[in-house]
Write a structure and sequence with these properties.
alpha+beta, globular
């Protein structure tokens, strides 16, 4: 059974359900569903990402594409994207395109405008576009490789902007030709993504900082992705490693959702071999489901961990706290 089938079997959320109703849909198999989700990679988006895909921004394009289906469902379920009736209709068409695109060999392709002059010129007033595609899903989304980084090699596009770009191009693939319509829809998804993300950067004595980012999702249930890495490199998702240390306080309760927040650096130090070790702390809200009582309770834990050179988290503190 695929992760998606597992979601549907055990959660089966209705598009109109609110947060508490969504959680109360959790029944048997919730742990296996979460395991699927935590182990999923960007390949879950279907197709592939080709071109120069080694950089941070390219990886962020792949990541955002992979979570767009759930992010769109979140817009509908929680009504948090301020969509008009026509925008809801267009976003449903984009959902359908994303579903169809899973069978495609390539979803996103990175192309250099400098090496292919005129490739991104789609009209008299549309030079140097960041991306382009077709008015159907017969071709991938082409992304302008030359506009992904600034002159110092730092990312020129953050995740919320990437979400806006992808929604715009997927809207074209859904048959919408109006750039204005898609710009407005993209801006609403960008705003929704801004509310999902929190990042902290630690200066390391060079121009390249170390970044820890938390991206919270509410669909199909509450969960978070935790990314770490130097800002000139592709980030590493350490959620699965960290969650190995997390559990509800009562052994009979199953973990039905979690949210990471209040992230903060605890400083940095040097190990014996002079490799940097980053120390980080955060809080985590756990939704714990008791099947016998059909009840969900909330717990808050404080976690601290170190990140050695290999960036595999080593938990140094895992303590339940009271916020009363």
């Amino acid at each position: 059974m695929t992760c998606k089938e597992n979601h549907r079997r055990h959660l089966s959320p209705d598009n109109q359900l609110g947060p508490s109703s969504l959680l109360l849909k959790v029944r048997r198999g919730v742990l296996s569903t979460m395991a699927c989700l935590l182990s999923a990679s960007t390949s879950s988006a279907g197709g592939s990402i080709i071109g120069n895909g080694a950089g941070l921004v390219e990886n962020n394009f792949a990541y955002v594409y992979s979570i767009l289906p759930n992010s769109i469902e979140e817009c509908f379920a929680f009504k948090n994207c301020d969509l008009s009736t026509s925008e809801q209709s267009l976003l449903k068409k984009i959902q359908n395109v994303l579903s169809l695109n899973k069978s495609l060999k390539t979803n996103i392709e990175f192309v250099s405008e400098k090496q292919n002059p005129g490739f991104f010129t789609t009209g008299d007033n549309e030079d140097h576009r960041i991306a382009k595609t077709c008015l159907d899903n017969s071709c991938p989304i082409y992304v302008n490789l030359d506009l992904l980084y600034d002159k110092d090699g730092k990312p020129a596009l953050e995740i919320p902007t990437i979400a806006s770009v992808l929604i715009h191009e997927l809207g074209h693939q859904a048959g919408e030709g109006s750039h204005t319509t898609l710009d407005i829809l993209g801006s609403k998804l960008r705003k929704a993504f801004l509310l999902k993300i929190s990042s902290n950067k630690l200066l390391t004595g060079t121009s390249i900082g170390f970044v820890v980012s938390i991206i919270n999702q509410k669909f199909p249930f509450q969960y978070s992705d935790l990314f770490v890495g130097f800002e000139d490199q592709a980030p590493l998702n350490i959620t699965q490693e960290l969650m190995k240390e997390v559990h509800c306080s009562k052994t009979e309760d199953a973990l039905a959702g979690f949210e990471l927040y209040n992230g903060h650096f605890l400083g940095s130090l040097k190990s014996a071999d002079n490799s940097p070790i980053i120390n980080y702390g955060l809080w985590i809200n756990l939704s714990c489901f008791n099947e016998e009582r059909e009840e969900i309770t909330s717990e808050t834990w404080e976690i601290e961990f170190s990140l050695p050179k290999n960036l595999i988290p080593e938990v140094t503190k895992n303590q339940k706290i009271s916020l009363e």
